[in-house]
Amino acid sequence: MPASTRYDAVLIGGGIMSATLATMLTELEPDWSVLVLERLDSLGEESSSAWNNAGTGHSALCELNYTPEKADGSIDISKAVQVNEQFQLSRQFWSFLVRSGLIEDPRSFINSVPHMSFVRGKNVEYLRKRYHALADHPLFSGMQWAEDAATIVDWAPLLLQGRAPGEKIAATRSDAGTDVDFGSLTRTLLAAAARRGAEVLTGHEVKDVTRRGSGWSLSVKADDGHSAEIATPFVFVGSGGGALHLLQRSGIPEGQGFGGFPVSGEWLRCTNPEIVRRHHAKVYGQAEVGAPPMSVPHLDTRIMHGEQSLMFGPYAGWSPRFLKTGHLTDLPRSIRPHNLLPMLAVARDNVPLTTYLVKQVLQSMDARMEALRVFFPDAQAADWELLKAGQRVQVIKKGPRGGVLQFGTELVAAGDGSIAALLGASPGASTAVEVMLRLVAKCFPAHQDAWRPKLQEMVPSYGRQLGEDPQLAKETFAGTAEALQLTH
């Protein structure tokens, strides 16, 4: 059980978001008592677990869903720039922790892996326009273009192995890409926070969150059956899909109208060394019509504990659970009078998504292999195994037609800043530092002047946009690459 009955801050969930915030708070206020509570018996095992997410280090170098084509045929790069800016904040924060000695070996969680986009047929012209829209931007400097087979086979041999000669194809490549093991990073960050005084407990579930004066009372139950009531002036609910239920229990008006739509996923994994050694890249393609953004297909190199493997997917699925280790009643228990209209509106307006999910759930292994062979024509089923990915809960909130299904993350905080919850999914893990910087500004406004020098030490570009300063972008990128031992 917790060592005390009162803490300056309590963080619910042992994933990358709580790990990032705990590390920040112990740097900003070393004398604060910080408690992190995780209901499972180990840390970083839900959305942050390496095989529960793509580990891309989302920076929009290859993800085509961040650069939609507008009605006039031009490419909108605003989302790509935003996502890249966010990931650069993460790189800076991790670099600070390396230089401070709080992270000993950055290669335990981040490694250089080129990021590629790969298209065929009519999508070649779209990719060409995307390349020209991004290539001169400071955050995408060094991006390369190819539509000849000789170059593409040099970049990623499996893409051409068994492909029919003369097929119209094109690719872009950025050597600035990374593969990130967010589960390993989560455990590293929480270990660092614990060394700085934070208390980190597994096997402890928060059952209720109740307002007590200007603060909160948390009902906590441990796996051994013991219970406790914890008082705190600040609560962060970073428990992935489980955050919605606790946000609802808090009763804050800012949480009214929010619902969740759970989407599960599956991957194919290959550990055959003869195949793995011939592919060193993360290669993203175009999503199917009606598919959610998180279902963009990609063939990826993954590096975990020094071992390489390949991953292809994701194949979308559906379950009413809000967590991979959740309950079948999670979705129905989340329905409230205040979110019923938005949820019904989303169901009405997203029939193509529902149809897509049904088809994905019913597909055979042969159908999954056909999707893989778009990328790797010679792929053989015997070399691949099916794994269950993490559970995502997409945000549903009030909108102009009653409700809207939102992809991405949503930070919901009480007006007085005493409690905040993070809802949503991809590219969440990659943007953890940006989200937590927003949280500390929103929830601790009285501390901002005092904290600013430390925040700028942890994240040197804090308050500035790298994309607006090419020289700063170049220097920052080189500095973080050196600290994180990345071979760009």
UniProtKB/TrEMBL annotation:
The keyword Coiled coil is annotated on this UniProt entry: no
GO MF term set: L-malate dehydrogenase (quinone) activity
Pathway membership: Carbohydrate metabolism; tricarboxylic acid cycle; oxaloacetate from (S)-malate (quinone route): step 1/1
Superkingdom as given in the UniProt entry: Bacteria
Top EC category: oxidoreductase
Gene3D superfamilies: FAD/NAD(P)-binding domain (3.50.50.60)
EC number(s) given by UniProt: 1.1.5.4
Signal sequence annotation: none
The keyword Amino-acid biosynthesis is annotated on this UniProt entry: no
Catalyzed reactions: (S)-malate + a quinone = a quinol + oxaloacetate
InterPro entries on file: FAD/NAD-bd_sf, MQO
Pfam families in UniProt: Mqo
Known cofactor(s): FAD
Alphabetical UniProt keywords: FAD, Flavoprotein, Oxidoreductase, Tricarboxylic acid cycle
PANTHER family xref list: L-2-HYDROXYGLUTARATE DEHYDROGENASE, MITOCHONDRIAL
Family, as annotated: Belongs to the MQO family.
Protein's name in the database: Probable malate:quinone oxidoreductase
Protein species of origin: Kineococcus gynurae
